[in-house]
Amino acid sequence: MKSLIFGITAMMAVTACAPTPESIAPAYVSELPYRGYTCDQLGEEQARLQQALATASGQQTSARSNDVVGILLIGLPVGSMSGQSIAPQIALYKGQL
Can you give the pTM of this predicted structure? Predict the structure, then answer.
């Protein structure tokens, strides 16, 4: 009985959590804003976006961890419910890269 409850709880934790940054698909972003950029400007923008993506990925990982802890302790994905999941922002950064 305990293993059944643990299995159900583990399954809930995996399915109800914020997605991992790696599992978030890139959003479509038009190339039009970048057409007038020089190579140097594109390089600077890429570096800025990579840094922003790394920061956002850390926040998303934290939200996922908070979801797991919340589900295990109180049965609710606390990170996602409190707005910590920033999956749309990560999708945008990935699309811009």
Answer: 0.74
Give, rounded to a whole angstrom, the gap between the first and last alpha carbons of the chain.
48
Of 92, 94, 69, whose CA–CA distance to 80 is shortest? 69
- What residues contact 87, with CB distance under 8 A and at least 6 apart? 18, 19, 24, 60
Q: Which two tokens stand for residue 93?
A: 């950064």
Rounded (5°) CA angle 8-12-18: 160
pLDDT digits (tens, 9 = 90+) for 58-71: 999 988 888 888 88
Side chain identity at residue 27, one-letter code: A
Name the H helices within 17-86: 39-74, 78-81
Let me know: does 21 contact 57? Beta carbons within 8 Å. Answer: yes
The 10s digit of each residue's pLDDT in 4-48 is 566 665 555 455 688 899 999 999 999 999 999 999 999 999 999
Task: Map tokens 């570096």 to a residue.
Answer: 47
